[in-house]
Amino acid sequence: CEAQDRLGLWRTGEAGLGHGFALSTLDYLLGNAVGQNEQARAAWLLDRGADPNALHAYTRQPLHALAQRSGFIAIQHLLEERGATRVVLTGVDAFHAACRRHDEATVRELAAADPALPRLPDVLLATCMFGDVASVDLLLGLGADVHAVDEDGISALHRAVQSGSLPLVDRLLSAGADPNVRDRKWQGTALSWAIALGRPNVFARLIPVSRDPRALARLGALNRLGVLLDEEPALANHRLADDQSPTPLYCLPDDEERAVTTAQLLLDRGADRKVRNAQGQTPAAAARARGLDDAADVLQGKHDAG
How is residue 147 annotated by DSSP? Predict the structure, then answer.
């Protein structure tokens, strides 16, 4: 863009990435850089005319306030150096910012003045999304509810998985977090979130405590899946409001060999190979569409996996 002398266009709000938010492209990109703690990119954008007092496109917060709440102190100082008006946070925002900068004295002072603050789900969940074990420890010590969920049914453990922090996942499980809570938006457990988000570092911690047959099938975690189905055979036909993959037989691993053994285990435990998805496919047809021909043969009963 700079080489093509298009920075003039990026400084206007009439077109480009920020157009739908009444922002210039530079200001829109600066909001993303601040929200993601990308200091070098933020400095580059400010050097070229981005407004340090701009609002974030999605939260509509001043960027200085967003940096404080997120605990991004270096970017907060960068914005101040470039002319941002200092925003004085109050209430839950001030509490959240103090947690993120590990200011225990201020956190305790604010919690003493308003004991409801540590129990607000949004504070714990947002802290977990950053993988901040120290802040989570502080919040739990002040009475935060490890079982709390937000309006979408997303738990602290879901957000910890999203962060990719194995120590935080372990801390929440040790505090009693339920790994089998399903969020209301995607109907996912902590383990299925780990799969969807590509967090293999937390698989080993979650597999032994998971009761999610779909996620266990997707990973080909046969030992745990077998134990689970021994305890609760009906889970072989566990149903969700998912028209594409209605039962665990639709949730096979991508690896052909593991897909075969997983399919055979589910069939041996009573999985129904005749259930069809919204496209009218059987599990065999869905497997074949994924290129899992051997697994599809097993699902059609064409040969024994052994």
Answer: T
Q: Please tell me the distance from the alpha carbon of residue 101 to that of residue 118, in angstroms, as a whole number.
A: 15
| Average pLDDT estimate for 185-204 | 95
User: What pTM, to 2 d.p., does this model score?
Assistant: 0.86
Extract the tokens encoding 234: 């009906």
**Cα–Cα–Cα angle for 151, 153, 156, rounded to 5 degrees:** 105
Given a contact cutoff of 8 angstroms between Cβ atoms, the answer to whether 297 and 285 are in contact is no
If you count DSSP H runs as helices and E runs as strands, how many of each does the chain have, helices first?
18, 0
Of 147 and 241, the structure prediction assigns the larger pLDDT to: 147
Measured from the Cβ of residue 198, the count of other Cβ atoms closer than 10 Å reads 8
Q: Does the pLDDT of residue 10 top 60, yes or no?
A: yes
Query: Alpha-carbon distance 199 to 213, whole Å?
Result: 18
Share of the chain above pLDDT 70, in %: 92
Give the pLDDT score at 141: 95
Residue 242 tokens, joined: 């998912």
**C-alpha–C-alpha distance, residues 202 and 299, integer Å:** 30
The answer to whether the CB of 241 falls within 8 A of the CB of 187 is yes
Question: Which residues are registered as beta bridge partners of 155?
Answer: 149
pLDDT surpassing 90 at residue 15:
no
Give the pLDDT band (50/70/90) at residue 305: very low
Are 276 and 226 a contacting pair, CB within 8 Å? no
Q: How many CB atoms lie within 10 A of CB 250?
A: 20
Nearest C-alpha neighbor of 178 from the set 199, 149, 198? 149
Which residues, 6 or more positions from 99, have their beta carbon under 8 angstroms from its beta carbon? 71, 107, 123, 127, 132, 135, 138, 139
Backbone angles phi, psi at 284, to 5 degrees: -65, -45
